[in-house]
Design a protein that fits this description.
binds adenosine-5'-diphosphate; single chain; 32% helix; binds magnesium ion
Length: 336
């Protein structure tokens, strides 16, 4: 692929990905636009079921059946991935764009040693390299991702490794071809907090060394806050707020984002012992039967009459900060 220096590495434009289910159609991604710059780390956050995984799987054209990309474009290095053939996509997956998942066993095959799998990932895209050099590079990569005794670990099977080491092996496999974009879908959700912090630090360190862009998907806003430059907040398949990470905390505009922020445990906050953390009332709506108007309105503590009638658009709040909320749009309307 030709690398264009100007412009973002990934630009999702107005993506809609739809599932026809027994209960009706649902848009897991609904008119989603999202950008990842070169060497940037971008987060997508939202509760379970809001469309984060489907959005990221759409980029790789791996949406599971019966899901279908219905509209939009996905520009990678200036070229639309939606117009590529299946063969071309195979050449891009694992080479230009890699993905890691919450559960390493999704990517790792239990039947082969981790070393063989990482070397194989390299050989698939570089057959001329030869087994010996692929093996050497895989061992070197194991060292890079903090797997101690990489030579002997090369010959172990996935089940012989701890969860944290398996995740490191999966990161090694994802990064061995030096992809331009790494998509990490809940990469640390299954790990305890100490290992989680180590893995996040590792991803940032490798990014500094290689300049890889990262799209980090998480339901946990504190993971995103620690790791990302910019954030997209998703709700019911839609982007409801978009901002650089500092501005999101300093100037939170969407009540849903405020709810996510309030549910983060903080070291120095006055949490009373025995008192539960704040949680957003109610649950995520049934995607096949979404309410009219703003999809968050039934759970919103600041709901107004218009919110239940009409869906707000995503509006620019200045400085690259956008929000889909009548509270903001309403204020703007009053000002005009
Ligand atoms: N294979 C599928 N068939 C039907 N609906 C699906 C399928 N996969 C995902 N969905 C629906 O798409 C929506 C978004 O799912 P997902 O992207 O997995 O959410 P998240 O990753 O944010 O938890 C959910 O409502 C989910 O039920
Ligand atoms: Mg998911």
């Amino acid at each position: 692929m030709n690398t264009q220096d100007a412009g973002p590495l990934l630009e999702i434009r107005r993506l809609t990905t739809r599932f026809q289910t027994q209960n009706g159609a649902l848009n897991a991604a609904d008119d989603v636009s999202l950008m990842v710059g070169k060497a940037e780390t971008v987060g997508v956050v939202g509760e379970s079921g809001c469309g984060k995984s489907v959005t990221s799987l759409s980029v790789l054209r791996l949406v599971p059946s019966p899901g279908k990309i219905e509209a939009g474009s996905i520009l990678f290095d200036g070229e639309d991935l939606l117009s590529k053939t299946s063969r071309q996509m195979e050449g891009i997956r694992g080479k230009d764009i890699s993905m890691i998942f919450q559960e390493p066993m999704t990517s790792l095959n239990p039947v082969y040693t981790v070393g063989k799998q990482v070397a194989e990932a390299l050989l698939v895209h570089n057959p001329a390299l030869g087994r010996k050099r692929a093996r050497d590079q895989a061992i070197e990569m194991f060292g890079h991702v903090g797997i101690s005794e990489p030579k002997s670990r090369f010959d172990t099977y996935p089940h012989q490794l701890s969860g944290g080491l398996r995740q490191r092996a999966m990161i090694a496999m994802a990064l061995i071809c030096r992809p331009k974009l790494l998509i990490a879908d809940e990469p640390t959700t299954a790990l305890d907090v100490t290992i989680e912090a180590q893995i996040l630090r590792l991803m940032k360190k490798l990014q500094n060394e290689t300049g890889t862009s990262i799209l980090l998907i998480s339901h946990n806003l504190s993971v995103i806050a620690e790791t990302c430059d910019r954030v997209y907040v998703m709700y019911s398949g839609r982007i409801v707020e978009e901002s650089d990470v500092f501005d999101l905390f300093d100037r939170t505009l969407h009540p849903y984002t405020s709810g996510l922020l309030a549910s983060i445990p903080r070291k120095n906050s006055a949490i009373e012992p025995g008192k539960p953390l704040h949680s957003i009332p109610g649950g995520v709506p049934d995607m096949t039967r979404l309410p009219c108007g703003c999809k968050f309105a039934p759970r919103c503590e600041e709901v107004m009459e218009i919110c239940c009638r009409e869906e707000p658009t995503l509006a620019d709040a200045g400085g690259g900060h956008c929000v889909r909320c009548w509270k903001f749009l309403g204020r703007k309307a009053v000002k005009v």
